[in-house]
Records
---
Amino acid sequence: MPVDTLPDLRHSPVPGEPAPPQPDPRRWLALAVIAIAQLMIVLDVSIVNIALPDAGADLGISAANIQWVVTAYTLTFGGLLLLGGRVSDIIGRKRAFLIGLLGFAAASGLGGIAPNQELLFGARALQGVFAALLAPAALSLLALAFTEPRERARAFGVFGAVSGGGAAIGLILGGTLTEFASWRWTLLVNVPIAVATALAAVVLVRESRAEGDRHFDVPGVLLSTAGLASLVYGFSRAAEAGAGWSDPLTLTLLGAAAVLLVGFVLHERRAAHPLLPLRIVLERNRGGSYLVFLLVGAGLFSMFLFLTFYFQETLGYTPLESGFAFLPFSGGIIVGAGLVSQVLPRVGPRPLIVGGLALAVAGMLWLTQIGVTSSFVTSVLPAELAMSFGMAMVFVSASSTALLGVDEHDAGVASATLTTAQQIGGSLGLALLNTFFASAVADRMAADPTGGTEAAMVHGYHVAFVWAAAFLGIALLIGAASISARRSDLPAPEMALAA
């Protein structure tokens, strides 16, 4: 037999064993689709924040109620994430992704044409419902589509850049739309983007779903949803003017959250078909990653809030100028994520997480140098660049370790746990730091009534940034102690299952 007619056995499966899964040939195009969906989710809070004054004036929303434009979204999003993750596992991640996109588009359109505050609040809550389905499905699809270490690192690099830079991009886009069009376009812009993304996903994204156990843990759903919703609302209530941490409703919500979430954990230990198998969060690398994301959310979300106030209230920037002031942060995240994705397979996640959090702490402390007449170039820009590169290192690396070794069956709920940690962390951080900020301003005004309101506000920003740096410092210690994965562990064999 001629040599060139011999069968090629190099890639033949061993008799009796299944052929190894082949990578999706359209995975890079699918990544673009997933990244667009993730960007839409991440920027949807910040893009609307810029438009709040205009929306409030147009619809006659009181100062006490305007926060519901944000809270209605975060409440349903944070409360339903675990359920959304399990639903995506069972009905199929692609199907959940498509339902989430189209539902998000419909809710955005409803909010954009809302004639009154009630419909706007309801539309924002509905956005959160579909975002809770979309977010875990997106991360699961990404994790299951990329199994080769270097490719997977690059894919997570893109995802990390989008996750980290999305809030700043939202501020720029929101300022532009509000200033040159209408506040309504901060919501309406989602409609064509979501529909186009869904159409592309039909062709480019490969379906995957959990096999085997496909039961719903109804008690777990009720306990986790009610507990997380109470927790998010309790934090939001504590940050409201005139309420605070001693408010009876705040205490009731937080007490109910504690009871419900403890009950959830106790139930999950005994449940035959748990919503959140405790093995997901108790594994050292994954658990550490979730805690890192929680604390990073607490520090980073507040940075955006207080710098936005500083730019507009102290330095006199317009909404659009404030948005562009965050552009270096977005650029640093994008560039940094690209570099980190190249380095991650070589050095492993732990050095990057620890080093990135150290940079972020340094950047946050640098912001304590801002003053009433500070220069953006010397007082803010270095801090933004340090934090952006640091966060790129953390987002790319911790997103990968958060899904390390997770069975395909649990990919959706593991992804949802990661997003839940960041969402709850952001709510906790905003509530705590807003309280510290208000107390610091009041104390400075009482101690130095002739110093002026602007100086007192800047002092309050300093206090908030110190506490934000403390959150990031605790995250650094947790990352150093808990992340033990080596470069050879990425990706874990379990994640190399067929998507």
---
Amino acid sequence: MKPNNLKSTTTFIQPVSRGLWRVISICGYCLLLSVFIIPKSAARQQPDMIVYLSDDLGYLDVSVYGAEVVKTPILEKLSQEGMTFDNAFVASPSCAPSRAALLTGLMPARNGAEVNHAYPKPAIPYLIDQLKDNGYSVFAFGKVAHYGGNEKCGFDFHHDEQVNLYDNISGYFDSTKVEGPVCIFVGDRRPHVWWTDKLEYDPGEVDLPPYYINTKTTREHRARYYTDVSGMDSEMGQVLDYFDDMLGDNTLTLFTSDHGAQWPFGKWNLYDAGIRTPLIVKWPGKITPGSRTGAMVSWVDILPTLLDVSDSEIPQKLDGKSFLEVLKGNTNDFRDEIYTTHTGDGNFNVYPMRSIRDERYKLIINLTPNAYHTNHSDILRKDGAGAFWDSWEEQAAQDPLAAAVVQRYFVRPAVEFYDLANDPNEQHNLANEAAYQPLVAKMKKQLDHWMEAQGDEQKLYKQPYYFPGPKPNGTTIQERKNEH
């Protein structure tokens, strides 16, 4: 039935031919129909999003970032199709705090997950909810977060098994109808220890950072680590091919890693080998293929950026902020400083530290310099993880250069300061150099103000291993556990 006002119009135009009236009617119908179609069309403009996470992958151990031996062809292809970030950093170089910061947009002191295997405080919301409120279905496969109790971070569906990612993903989506735009998190546990027994690389040909001790066992473990890196890269290729068939061209794909690898001076450290991470983002038609940026970004910025990309609401007072304008190529400037924190991991890793880094300089504050720096690798020395430590100490007993490496690992000063332009491996501490005292003081003041604003109590969750006691080992750890 036509509306009354349309009836009167029809009477007025009686002389008009029936054919012309049909044209007018059809046009009117199309105009009316477009009113209902526009919202659906707009909804379809929301991109699907894939967030692919590696576990314990050092940024220099990817061919995109200059690695010459280890092969990562899928990441090379992704880099050629998208934007590569040369200065991306995590919030904390341990798994649970890093992933909690990712999913909340808040740094560890503010979200409550300061030590490893901790979770955000119950009152802290996950940013997954913002995507769901905007019509997204959000899925998680593999190691995406550390979950507390039945808390699953708000995902509509999660498949926690950390092996056979491709089979788990394809099996689910082949049998499940998904409505609306999707955001899919995929977490590969590789190259987290323990590293595979397989050797796709010749131990004699692997490259080692200049501050490692070159031993046979070190090279064998490095070859196993590289094998896992390439294994992760290969399966990611299968998964992304599957998503290419499943989703449309309007899909944003983001790859990154939660922190550096479990090697000395990497994971659980605030050197760049621990906190600097690969980050590559592809979005056809939106991001210039093959582009690179020097913009400094943090893991707390990733979810706010996805919220911005999807036109979802971004909560106020986050530590993270959107770098969408960087992705669009409109700017190479984003953050002036990067702050990172590490607090500990149970009884194995009790050596809290904080840092501030700009484009050239880094200041690290070690909160317990009168204790040994130590962690799982040198304590447990397990095959496929830290077994190479025996060979390091054997060589240190007869080689002064090796002894200096071991000493620097276990014993650290209260303040470390590095000129990253001239010393990218952070080997020469300039904290006591007279020429740098004004800059050290300035950055120390900035770091102090930031910690105060964060409510960072610099809390010790466990007792450190103070001098002059023995360095901890498996027996020491067990004794401490028995005390509690």
